[in-house]
Amino acid sequence: MSALQAYVRATAPIGRDAERIGPFLATFAKDSSHPMENYAIPDDGAKPSSAEIALLISAYRQRDLRPRLEFFTEAAPDVEATLVAAGFTLERRVPVMTCSVEDLVDCDAPEHIQLREPSSDDEFRRLRSVQNVAFGESPEVSDADVERNRDYLTVLAERGETIVGGGIALDIVSGATEIVGIAVAVEHRGQGIATAITAHLTRLAHERGAETAFLTPGDVGIGTVYRRAGYRVAGECVHLSLS
């Protein structure tokens, strides 16, 4: 888990402001107050003091943001209890799943579904809109969102000219990449499309130099989708916040 936590620590500041606060790397989105885009990561083995936690809280409060952390428990096993004692609450605990080149299982999409990389900003925008809706957010997509996604390895699933889902592989750093945003429109679920997207995207990431791909499913049940593509649970990730 330390290697994967180091990956997150290296990639989380990309496109964000970042500040070192005691044993924490605090990140702040430049154009969004969404909790999932504003969070801190503890150092491996961190044992934060009350004063350091207070400074972290202040940094987020000063920006009108909820103090939040996301981290792999195995990399910093003492931090969760310390934060809970300081008033933080557990938002969720999710598995961390990994897939090596050897573990990947190729999964074909249904015959009526084509998987490919987007070829225009319009396709990036339409894919992001599908992802937003799938995750319960607004279908509106800003130019900044399109710009951010353009630099990542992205796969879309389409039926005819309609984009029905997709996913993203983030930067490859030290042989690792994170798979995010796997989504399928509600009316097209239950056909194996999400598994096919995951397998295809992971295959492309491996071909471009990633030895290990990892992801954190939104809930335990959805993990079955990723297991079919060869992903296995390797640890857990916790999200904690202070109201």
Automatic annotation (TrEMBL):
Which UniProt keywords are present, listed alphabetically?
Transferase
What's a BP term from Gene Ontology annotated to this protein?
Answer: aminoglycoside antibiotic catabolic process
* A GO MF label: aminoglycoside N-acetyltransferase activity
The protein's matches in CDD domains, at most eight in alphabetical order, are given as: NAT_SF (cd04301)
N-acetyltransferase domain location is: 113-243
* InterPro entries in the cross-refs: Acetyltransferase_Eis, Acyl_CoA_acyltransferase, GNAT_dom
Classify the source by domain of life.
Answer: Bacteria
Protein name in the entry: Acetyltransferase (GNAT) domain-containing protein
Write down the species. Answer: Amycolatopsis rubida
